[in-house]
Fold this protein.
Amino acid sequence: MITLRNLPGQSLLQLQGNTVSSVRGDALARVDGPTLRNHDGARLAHVEGDRIFLAPEQPSLQLAGDRLLTHSGLAVATVDGGTATEKALLGAAFLLLCSDG
């Protein structure tokens, strides 16, 4: 299981198999290769290298080791375990499902 945590260390999201879920176990999205999809199969985000795209040509986050960074380099979360692509897609789910904006 891969866990995304906010900077104080609170668990926010988990990836187990290809399912992104809340810490309560509610399924929120699924991973399909380098793509994050909703329950209907619509593309929500994709990963290219260390960059996370919510829209074509517009990176929204960047993965630096276990840290998720904004485009300006500000750390917003950490991810424990998994491949770089899995970490990045969990970061995309964080941006889409856990942010206020």
Summary: The beta strands are 2-6, 11-16, 19-22, 27-32, 35-37, 43-48, 51-55, 58-64, 67-70, 75-80. The chain has one helix and ten strands. The first strand starts at residue 2 and ends at 6.
